[in-house]
Amino acid sequence: MHVEHPEITQVNRTGYANMIAQSEHAGVDYFGTEILIGDEIVTDDNTGEVVLKEDLEKYLEEEYGFKFTTAE
After folding, report:
1. Domains of the chain in sequence order
2. Cα–Cα–Cα angle for 60, 65, 67, rounded to 5 degrees
3. What InterPro entries does the record tag this protein with (predicted)?
């Protein structure tokens, strides 16, 4: 007689549960970072590039040579 653990039986019957719900993917930005539905993005009308809002400063420094400093 073969006895199987109840969790193994469940997995065999229904498959593995999605342990972490995945957000819906909406593409990647200029830096190759995944964009998820609901993320704030910025589009550069000159190049068509899309950048996550949180990376806008980095994009402006790299693409246009902007310098960000603190006023004294």
Report:
1. 23-72 (3.30.40.30)
2. 80
3. Uncharacterised_Yqai, YqaI_dom_sf
